[in-house]
């Protein structure tokens, strides 16, 4: 069943497996980074991920954490690392302790209080940077970053010998650059675009868009801390990356229906080629 295996997505050699529907579950695993955004209810395609970037406390996004911890113990993996907003750490530690008490088994795991703007190493050259979103509960989105160390501009064009000499004399010849490869907004209102505009530069951005037509109004979407596509439509040109992937669709819509709505509402073929509906 696709739900247990995860639905595939691929762009520019970056592969993703996951699910993302409002209220039922969101977990987006990026094997190259060995990290998943959110946990859904703990699905088999992400058990091998060493890292999880948890956006917020709603159960369809984070309810799977205890189950994933158990699966890792069962298969003798190293304890997983779960980045999450700080307010979640105490309650989730209590939940894990309660499970440990009930099962008579002490589980190992690492919960990290993620701060917006900080860069966390997954395993170099792969890094994670949380950013602010805005939902009914405090929510972080995350960017997955790939580090590179190109030469500083003043050394470009110099010979290997000159560069070697500069290095030996203690000069810093290279610089550290972080390329935003994949990001996920978490559940959010459209305000994340103004709170965290740098995220719109990410190569592949997974953005929650829960509602798509007048079955639910913009006001309804906002009241629940979500995005309506009609709010995104006039702002599409602000996205500077390569693929904008809409996820977290309400179960009121089939994916086929949403793809049809997208083609009806976006007339520019060049813009349309950057957009995907997935989940
Ligand atoms: Zn959600
Ligand atoms: Zn939510």
Report what the structure shows.
The chain has 10 helices and 14 strands. The strands form 2 sheets. A 7-stranded mixed sheet has the order 1-2-3-4-5-6-7. Strands 8-9-10-11-12-13-14 form a 7-stranded mixed sheet. The chain is globular, with a radius of gyration of 20 Å. The protein has one domain (2-277): Ribonuclease Z/Hydroxyacylglutathione hydrolase-like (Metallo-beta-lactamase, Chain A), CATH 3.60.15.10. By secondary structure, it is of the alpha/beta class. Bound molecules: zinc ion (2 copies).
Main attributes?
binds zinc ion, single chain, alpha/beta, Metallo-beta-lactamase, Chain A, 10 helices
Per CATH, the superfamily is: Ribonuclease Z/Hydroxyacylglutathione hydrolase-like
In the sheet with the most strands, the strands line up as: 1-2-3-4-5-6-7
Number of beta strands: 14
* Architecture per CATH nomenclature, i.e. the level-2 architecture: 4-Layer Sandwich
User: What gross morphology would you assign?
Assistant: globular
N-end to C-end Cα span: 14 Å
Secondary structure: helix percent: 25-40%
Q: Order of helices and strands, N to C?
A: HEEEEEHHEHEEEEHEHEHHEHHE
The fold-level CATH name is: Metallo-beta-lactamase, Chain A
Bound molecules: zinc ion
Query: Mean of residue pLDDT?
Result: 97
Structural class assignment:
alpha/beta
Using the CA coordinates, give the radius of gyration.
20 Å
The amount of beta strand, in percent, is 25-35%
Number of domains: 1
Please give the count of helices: 10
Low-confidence stretches: none
Report the top-level CATH class.
Alpha Beta
């Amino acid at each position: 069943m696709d739900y247990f295996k995860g639905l595939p997505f691929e762009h520019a050699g970056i592969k993703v497996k996951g699910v993302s529907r409002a209220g039922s579950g969101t977990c987006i695993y990026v094997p190259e980074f060995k990290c998943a955004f959110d946990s859904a209810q703990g699905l088999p395609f992400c058990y091998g991920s060493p890292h999880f970037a948890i956006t917020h406390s709603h159960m369809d996004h984070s309810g799977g954490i205890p189950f994933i911890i158990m699966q890792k113990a069962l298969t003798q993996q190293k304890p997983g690392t779960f980045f999450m907003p700080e307010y979640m750490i105490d309650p989730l530690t209590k939940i894990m302790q309660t499970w440990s008490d009930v099962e008579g088994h002490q589980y190992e795991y690492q919960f990290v209080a993620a701060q917006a703007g900080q860069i966390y190493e997954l395993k170099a050259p792969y890094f994670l940077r949380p950013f602010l979103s805005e939902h009914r509960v405090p929510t972080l989105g995350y960017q997955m970053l790939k580090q590179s160390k190109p030469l500083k501009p003043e050394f470009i064009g110099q010979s290997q010998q000159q560069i070697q000499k500069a290095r030996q004399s203690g000069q810093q010849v290279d610089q550290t650059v972080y390329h935003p490869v994949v990001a996920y907004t978490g559940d959010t209102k459209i305000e994340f675009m103004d709170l965290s505009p740098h995220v719109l530069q990410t190569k592949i951005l997974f953005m929650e868009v829960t509602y798509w037509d007048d079955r639910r109004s913009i006001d309804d979407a906002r009241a629940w801390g979500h995005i309506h596509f009609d709010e995104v439509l006039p702002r599409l040109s602000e996205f500077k990356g390569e693929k904008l992937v809409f996820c977290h669709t309400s179960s009121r819509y089939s994916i086929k229906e949403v793809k049809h709505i997208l083609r009806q509402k976006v007339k520019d073929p060049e813009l349309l080629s950057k957009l995907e509906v997935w989940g």
